[in-house]
Specification:
Largest sheet: 3 strands, mixed
CATH topology: CBS-domain
Strand content: 15-25%
CATH class: Alpha Beta
Number of domains: 1
CATH superfamily: CBS-domain
Strand order of the largest sheet: 3-4-5
Number of helices: 4
Distance between the termini: 40 Å
Radius of gyration: 14 Å
CATH architecture: Roll
Low-confidence stretches: none
């Protein structure tokens, strides 16, 4: 366990394609995308939703300024 893991800091994300088509014996650390995009809780939802739609992103991580996961924001279906 690294120092970042002990502090609960977001290290990366796993894409669903990697889980569906990847080797089931591979550890997450080897397939995760490091440094995912996150937003702060103070972000305005309307502007965020518009940016997500234009980037074709369905969900985004919400984190504190020190990188701790606070939640997941999912834009309404469009």
């Amino acid at each position: 366990m690294t120092h970042h893991e002990e502090l609960g800091i977001i290290m990366g994300i796993i894409q669903s394609e990697q889980l569906e088509h990847g080797d089931p014996d591979t550890i997450f650390e080897r397939v995760m995308v490091e440094g995912p995009t996150t937003v702060r809780p103070s972000e305005e939802t309307k502007a965020l939703t518009e940016r997500m739609r234009s980037a074709d992103v369905a969900a985004i991580l919400v984190s504190s300024s020190d990188g701790k996961l606070l939640g997941l924001y999912q834009a309404a279906a469009y």
